[in-house]
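Demo today. Your pick:
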Amino acid sequence: MSADAALVTRCLQGDPAAARELVERFQTDVLAVCRRLLAHLHDAEDVAQEVFLRVFRSLNRWDHARPLRPWVLGIAVNRCRTAIGKRGKGPELADYLHDAPDRTPPDDSAETAREIRAAVDALRGEYREVFVLFHEHGQPYEAIAEAVGRPVGTVKTWLHRARLEILDRLRARGLVPAEDPTPSARGE
C-alpha cells in the first residue's frame, strides 16, 4: 500500500493525526495555488479551507491507483474556478487594500517581475492555471492534466499559448526586444 493510500485509509478510519498530516502535507501547495489563481490572500485562505473540506468529504472516492497530490490540487483549481465565477464581473473598488504596499526601490527586475505577474493574471483562466501549476509549483504535465481534467496534449498547448501571450505582453511593454522575423537575424 502506498504512503498516500495508507494516509487516506487512516483518515477514513477517523484518525485525527492522519487528518492533520494530510492538511500539513498539502496546505502550502493548496494555499499557494489558491493565492496565485485568486490574487487575494483572504480569498485564497477561504477557498483553501473549502478545498480541505471537499477533500475530506471526497476521500472515499479517491482512486488509490493515482497519486494524491494532483487530485488535491485538482480540487483546489476547481474551487478557485467556482470562486472566480461567483465574483462580480467588474473590478473591486478596494482591490488595492488587499495587498501590502511595495516599498522596494524600483529597478528593472522589479518592473519585469510586476509585468510578468500582471501578464499571468491577465491570461484566460485555463492558461493561468496550467502556467501556475507548471512554472510556480513545478508540477509535471501528467499531474497538471489530472488536476485540470484535460489531456496532457491540451495542457501542453495551453502552456505554450500562455507563454506566447506573456512574451507578447512583455514585448509590447518594451521589456523584451521584438523578434526580428528575417531568417538572417536568426542565424539561418
Summary: Residues 16-38 form the longest helix (23 residues). The chain is about 65% helix and 0% strand. Confidence is low (pLDDT under 50) at residues 90-106. The CA atoms of residues 7 and 21 lie 8 Å apart.
